[in-house]
Amino acid sequence: METIRPQVLRETPEVRVALVADLAHSPVPTSIMGLTLVGVNLFTYAATGSVILLAAAIWGGLSCVAKLGLMAWQAHHTRTRPAHARMTTRFEAAHALVTLGMASAVGAGACSVFRQPDVQLQLLATGMMFGYGSGIVGRVAIRPLIAVAALIVAGTPAIIAAASWENTTHRLTALIFGVFLVGSFESVRHVHRTAVWHVATRIKMARLARNDPLTGVANRLGLREAFGSFAPQAGTSVAVHSMDLDGFKIINDRFGHAAGDTVLAEIARRLVAAVPEDATVARIGGDEFVVLQRHIHRPGEVEDLAKAVNRALREPIAVAGRNLSVGVSLGYAWAGADGCRLEELLRHADEASYRIKRMGGGIAACGGGATAEAATLRNVA
Predict the structure, then answer these.
(1) What is the pLDDT of residue 232?
(2) What SS3 string covers 54-72?
């Protein structure tokens, strides 16, 4: 059986936002590591009286509390506000600081213990180091620079302290520590690569569920989500423009489906370029497109957009050295943004589109609201 391996993918900004957000979801292992760190350093302080160990226990505990507080703040922020690149950078920098704070406590405590002659205490420090290292690889490796820096800060002081002893056992211990430290870098790389692959795949699948694979614009599900996600402003309206391409079947039959796909992709591109940034373009059928227009302050804005779309789509499209033209039958309907339903707007806009198509194409308006039962068609092509 063939083994499926994660591909090496570039960490896109969208993937980075998801990976940094995941740092907020490890309070339990962080708490366990914090308690272990404080407990081991306090126990060895009681046995040796080393002030460094007391300082490491206090510093490690404070760093752990700061890390848990950061996680709680980040989780709350993610729930209440959309993630963006600037805030992601701030959270990542904050995680780097608190993670390195705990790592320095581990490194200082382990270094101090390995300077003591008590082998049993050295066993405790070894367990603390390897426990921390496995936690870093398992939880923080999704941010490889932070993980590698933390491993170096936590492990290098103990390696130096063990190597300073004039006996073979301690020097072999230092060598083993060093080998495991270098090996952990490969583990970090593997975990990060796998995480990027999984997150990128998840994002891609979510996008495919909401977007048309041929044109890249929203599909029917994406249109519904876009309609339900925006907050209407008082006194504004929302409009739906429903359009059907005239003559598209002839292009498909005469020049083939590849030419038809090229036409559809170009139509989608022109629609995206013609509509406002806050509008949503969707392909909901073979040659059926919809534009969701938000935040309309006067009815004339709806007609202006319909005319702009009509002009953009009627320009010839170059396909395999030929200039192909399609017509458009466009119907639109609008209503107050507060309380209107997408299905009702679509129904009225579709009715206007079908009627104007039977009249030879152009643009038709369906009344002044989604609840209108009848409307006068106005061919303004």
Answers:
(1) 67
(2) HHHHHHHHHHHHHHHHHHH
Which structure tokens are listed for 242? Answer: 């429903």
Encode pLDDT of 91-125 as tens digits: 999 999 999 999 999 999 999 999 999 999 999 99
* 45-77 pLDDT per residue, tens: 999 999 999 999 999 999 999 999 999 999 998
pLDDT digits 0-9 by tens, 161-208? 999 999 999 999 999 999 999 999 999 999 999 999 999 988 888 888
Residue type, 179: V
Checking DSSP bridges between strand 327-336 and strand 237-246, what pairing results, if any?
antiparallel
Q: What are phi and psi of 4, to 5 degrees?
A: -90, 120
Indicate whether 81 belongs to any domain.
Answer: yes
Judgement on whether residues 202 and 225 belong to the same structural domain of the protein: no
Q: Please report, for the domain that includes residue 315, its CATH number.
A: 3.30.70.270
Looking at residue 23, the DSSP 8-state letter turns out to be G
What's the domain count of the chain?
2
Q: How many CB atoms lie within 10 A of CB 33?
A: 23
329: nearest Cα among 367, 299, 287, 301: 287
Token pair recorded at residue 358: 């039977």
